[in-house]
Amino acid sequence: MVDMKIRIGVGSGGASSTPRALEELVTGLDDLGFDSLWLSEILTGPVLDPAVGLAWAAARNPRVKLGTTMLLPGRNVLRLAKQLASLDVLCDGRLLVTLVPGLTYAPERDAIGVEPKHRGAVIDEALPLLRRLWAGETVSHEGAAGSLRDVKLAPLPVQQPLEVWLGGTAPAALERCGRLSDGWLPSLLTPAEAATGRKVIEEAAARAGRAISSEHFGVSVGYASAALDPATARTLAARRPRALELTPVGWPALRASLEGFIAVGFSKFVVRPVVAPASWRAELEALSTAVGDLQT
């Protein structure tokens, strides 16, 4: 049986920047049986740094798993390796990692510091270095991802290996996912597009002499519990092509969206409100009623 999990994500629309809000979110996740808390890294958005926020959450709750969609381009590879390894140690192996190239709209595009057309090459070079560092190898490297001379990381992650998923839907991103990643977590696509992308990834993995677990295909789904106000709708449409078209509005629409992805073999879902909820507890209770029974 496929292990179906619903994870709660906080993106640019889901405020959790105060201790009270994050406490309410972490407690509600645990009480209502959701799989994990996910914090997105958006440098110019009104959101917490994910490593800091997840470290705080780890200290508050010993059970909830902790996930992040964290930027890889623009980062010092050794610093990122140490940061994530340290977080995995502090949460006793509860860390879930998806690395992303980052958004392409202003001002986030410029803040990341790497042009969108160059970000894929950075991931190609940096992800193998991260894996070597987390495995305890002594690493020397010279390239666009940085300069390392006989570096050995400590502490090492509790999880060996520490798995890394990737996102993206462009052809090069799908090929990279098959060649380098442990899983796929895209957003803003239809179930049919997800199924096609999965096939491309699995074929790329086979060419690379590897395989990705059938349990490691998920989708990040932004949703609205009620109709969006015009200003929010305009912002979404301006920032992300197809965002309005692919954002389920209302609980029945969210459930139908998840069921569509389940039907094509996807089993891990990060659901994130595009509008900050007035109460995380109330939001989680409504989510539990609407889609909680989809979990196994």
Notes on the structure:
With 296 residues, this protein is of the alpha/beta class. The chain has a domain at 5-64 and 108-117 and 162-294: TIM Barrel (Alpha-Beta Barrel), CATH 3.20.20.30. It has 10 helices and 10 strands. It has helices at 19-32, 50-60, 77-90, 108-112, 116-134, 171-180, 191-207, 230-239, 251-263, 280-291; strands at 5-10, 36-40, 65-71, 95-100, 138-143, 146-152, 164-166, 183-184, 218-223, 268-273. The chain has an 8-stranded parallel sheet with strand order 8-7-4-3-2-1-10-9. Strands 5-6 form a two-stranded antiparallel ribbon. Strand 2, helix 2 (50-60) and strand 3 (65-71) form a beta-alpha-beta unit. Helix 2 runs parallel beside helix 3 (77-90) and helix 5 (116-134) packs parallel to helix 6 (171-180). The longest helix has 19 residues, at 116-134. 43% of the residues are buried. The model has no long low-confidence stretch (mean pLDDT 93).
